Amino acid sequence: MSLARRMDDHPEDRPEEHPEDRIDEALRGAFLQAMSRAATTVSVVTTDGPAGRAGVTVSAMSSVSADTPQPTLLVCVHEASPASRAIRENGVFCVNLLRDDRHAVSDVFAGRIKTPDGDKFSCTGWRALKTGAPVAEDRLVAFDCRLTAEHQVGTHHVFFGAVQAIDQAADGRPLLYADRAYGTPTRLEQEAGGVTHTRLRRFNTRDTYPEQQLDNDLCQTVAARGTTLYLRGQVGQDLETGRSVALGDAAGQAEQAMANVTQLLAEAGSDLSHICKIVVYITDPRYREAVYRVIGRWLKGVYPVSTGLVVQALARPEWLVEVDVTAVIPEAGDAAAAS
Question: pTM higher than 0.70, yes or no?
């Protein structure tokens, strides 16, 4: 009879198992699904030194403290990534926070896209700051770090870095990752009246048309919340009597048109702050500055999308300007918050 024995022949010889040491697969799956809903920035963590150059895409990056001798951050890198070993051996790393138009760089360092020469670093240009770790030329922000501590949790190494230098782009937005897809942040501005409409790429006509005496707050895009209102084009005509006003006076007709718009919006349960788009029609380009000055005063701080057109004529020969408005009625919750 063989003298060899199996571990399970004698239960007392088996290592003691603790319930808390076993992975709860159901909980793990729920955790991964829930964490996919958390929006995170996307960074490429790079390193260079005795162990060579390496890099990997990460979404687990966080500030730890600004109140240390040098600001401290952390990144989490999978143990199977070559960058994990290289960071430990090189003792330095750089967190390259990517711009929202650089998701291809993220895909390269995540291994989803291969470069023609097989070198991940050929997908963009690089330079170095203090530690020698590669800094992407088209990064939004770069945090150049010296490795101060490392701790393994499960399959990931948590690297703590003391920030040696910071390099920031003049402008741009961060690349985000949520719901297993890339995204870009949208600023939610609190508008007059307490309702949030997102107005993107705001500008003022005094900057775009410096040669004209205009002061109109406009934007390129409005993402509106609420029920859409389409107003009939308003002209220099009294709403109650139907009588044309300000004959021969484009600015006066614009005043009447905007007064009409204000009244119609109020009757529908809205106001000027919920205007999303205006289209201004004039019959002579010489009326433009006078008309736009009036409209700019009525819509100061609103920032609608605006289009201006010069037309041969309007419905009546005495009408010189027409204002077409698209607005919204705020949602019930927003209206309550505004009251």
Answer: no
